[in-house]
Amino acid sequence: MVDVAQPLSGSGAAPNRASDLSIRIRRSAEFVAIPLFALIVSGVLFSIFLLALGKSPGDFYSLVWRGGFGTAFSIQNTLQRSAPLILTGLAVAIPARIGLVVIGGEGALVLGGFAAAAIAIPLVIGHFPPFPTLVIMMAASIVVGGFWIGLVGYLRYARGVNETISSLLMTYIGIAIMNFFVEGSMRDLSNPNKPSTMPIGDAYMVGYIPGTQVHWGFAVGIFLAVVLQILMSRTTFGFAVRVAGGNPRAALAQGLPVGRLIVICCAIAGACAGIAGFYEVAAIQGRANASLVAGYGFTGILVAFLARQSPIAIIPVAIMFGGIVASGGLVQRRMELPDATVLLLQGMTFVVLLTSETLYGRFKIFQPPETTDRT
Amino acid sequence: MSDNSLAIVFFALVGGALRVSTPFMFVALGECLTEKSGRVNLGLEGTLVLGAMTAYAVSFHTGSPWLGVLAAGCSGSVLGAMHGYICKLPKVNDIAVGIAMMIFGTGVAFFFGKAYIQPSAPRLGSFSLGAWTGNAQITQALQINPLFLVGIAVAIVMAWAFANTKWGLIVRMAGDSAPAATAMGVSVDLVRFLSTTFGGFLAGVGGAFLSLYYPGSWNQGLSSGQGLMAVALVIFARWSPIRCILAALLFGAAGAIGPALQSVGITQGYYFFNAAPYIMTLFIMIASAGSKRAMRDVPGELSITK
After folding, report:
1. Band of pLDDT at residue A84, cut at 50, 70 and 90
2. Mutate which of A49, A309, A336, A357 to disrupt the B interface (most B C-beta within 10 Å)?
């Protein structure tokens, strides 16, 4: 039992406040314990799966640990990969606050990255100074990403188009748009291997956070997660969003601009995913090509659900999945597993996690103590 | 564009519609059944991919493509049953579970499918409805796979069953009003579980068509959203199996625009035309969502249109 729990027999103000605290702690404990339980269950299920294939689960988990968190190098690699996951996780979590299941982060990431590369090329050719160039690139990816998912929100509000399906369709359309330009008019013909735009060049790349090998996207991701957490839980805007998410009719009756709130939430989501695309181009790839379609947007969905759509909780969950993604190569080579292993593990975790939703409210330990004598 | 190339494009479109539509048709029929019972399964994209992989693998190992089709259906029903069972639990959101099943199905298919990208498996045969004309172009365009006809038969049977049988009534009742169905002594959960399972079976068969007939090979980019488009198509078809067939043909033709134009030498904007089905789906959703007719036909318990 949680030892802060106090009997509610007292009638003064102090015990009441203590019991409020106890309720909050119990609730938070439930939000941590049940996802953790789901993670453990999916870990066990995946171990059984590996055993059935004649592979050792022990090897698998120790390789994931070594490849993701074992050395200073692997930790930095993990943090680097968690940067887009934080941002695409936010792209799911913010619309979720207003009751929308938007899963189009991948498309906004790809188009955001492409927009950054596309706008950079004339500036790079014109020898525009690097810093303002990067600012313009980032602005482009924010605008394009925000527009892309904002449109999903607009269609949802104005026309009642299901946002889950439309956002995923928009992802396919976004990838097709990038391919159209990258393999067509914007293709860098001096690069015969992989259709890409012109490289932006080393001078224009985003650097590392001082003292690390981790690009600035990681810091920006954490900063945005904190800002959005505050926005969603401590401001009038966040309150309005939560009201609209909980009961749109009541929100409308209260005169809240529900349509505008939906579009703003979706645009914030798209902007986050767009920024992820910007860093993939400006810090990792150096150009826009099919490597942007790396599945970060889809892993971000799982990250957001595992974090229970809380911006701040997305950070540790994204780092964990960043580690799993980062160790993927090592696991594949050492254990001769196909590259889809990570995808399978993610799918399995996701299914178990959603199944665990049914456990909320079933355990007495997480519930407020009997409140009969409080009234 | 000359008359001749117009004709080529036209026949390529017709042929494409007949070929490309079949997977749309099966997934849409499966989703139609599931949604009629009051539940949404967004995971049929994953089911389609897993069905394609299973069919190809079984056909490769047994040498019988029809056994592959059956296996694809069974793998689809397993995914459908999982979805149906999980959604039965209280507090679980069927849309989110669908997304998870999409990732899970795709993950399983890619994991086990790695070994089957290279080898060549026996495919399903076809026959032509246009052979009597003696015209090679028409014969080619009217090539039909037996699964296409099976799909149409399933649609007709389903439409008839919804309208005329006790089972059809039970499914519709579970979809329109769970309390009414419960009052009649029907287990809503069981009806939805079975509908989702059978819907998964149909989607799996649709996947078999992809890998065993057209395009006729197994690779990771095989489906790229067709399962999802088919789910959107059901809203457009307003939950009628017959209209699902017509919508699937329309989608098939849209999917064939790119290759058809390519066959007469128009390669510019190839990627744009490949995106045509997605764009069309989006526009169709914009046009049909929230329309009065759609609101009248929607099963009352459905969460997707609320």
Report:
1. very high
2. A357
Chain-chain contact of A357 with B93 (C-beta, under 8 angstroms): yes
Q: Which two tokens stand for residue B151?
A: 């799909």
Cα A302 to its chain centre, rounded Å, is 8
Which of B96, B103, B228 lies at the smallest CB-CB distance from A101? B96
- Which residues of A fall within a CB distance of 8 Å from B189? none
Q: Do B111 and A344 touch (CB under 8 A)?
A: yes
End-to-end Cα spacing for chain B: 46
Q: Which tens digits make up the pLDDT trace of A181-238?
A: 998 888 888 887 888 999 999 999 998 999 899 999 999 999 999 999 999 999 999 9
What CATH number has the domain spanning B3-297?
1.10.3470
pTM: 0.92
Angle of helix B276-288 versus helix B226-236 axis, rounded to 10: 30
Mutate to test the interface with A, among B49, B99, B285, B293 (most CBs of A within 10 A): B99
* Tokens of residue A365, six digits: 């330990």
Rounded Cα distance between B61 and B305, Å, is: 43
Q: Which pLDDT does position A103 carry in this prediction?
A: 94
Could you give the CA distance from residue B211 to residue B166 in angstroms, rounded to a whole number?
A: 36
Rg from Cα positions in chain A: 23
The CATH number of domain A56-336, selected from 3.90.190, 1.10.357, 2.40.160, 1.10.3470: 1.10.3470
Distances (CA, A) of B180 to A57, B94, B185, B275: 49, 21, 9, 43
Interchain proximity A305–B96, CB inside 8 Å: yes
Question: Which residues of chain B lie closer than 8 angstroms to A361, CB-CB?
Answer: 91
Can you tell me the distance from the alpha carbon of A38 to that of A268, in angstroms, rounded to the nearest whole number?
29
Residue B129's pLDDT band (boundaries 50, 70, 90)? confident
Q: Do A166 and B93 touch (CB under 8 A)?
A: no
Out of B89, B111, B290, closest to residue A340 by CB: B111
> From B112, which residue of chain A is nearest by alpha-carbon distance?
A338
ipTM above 0.90, yes or no: yes
A104: nearest Cα among A164, A189, A190, A51? A164
Q: Which residues of B touch A168 (CB under 8 A)?
A: 225, 228
Write down the mean pLDDT value for chain A. Answer: 90
What's the confidence (pLDDT) of residue A7? 46
Nearest to A357 among B92, B108, B274 (CB): B92
What span, in angstroms and rounded, lies between the C-alpha atoms of A186 and A13? 69
CA distance B172 to chain A (A): 22
- Look at residue B27 in the predicted model and tell me its pLDDT: 96
pLDDT at A93: 97
Instruction: Check B97 against A354: CB less than 8 A apart.
Output: yes
Hey, where are the domains in chain A?
1-55+364-375, 56-336
- Gap between the Cα atoms of A16 and A1, Å rounded: 19
Task: Judge contact between B55 and B211, C-beta under 8 A.
Answer: yes
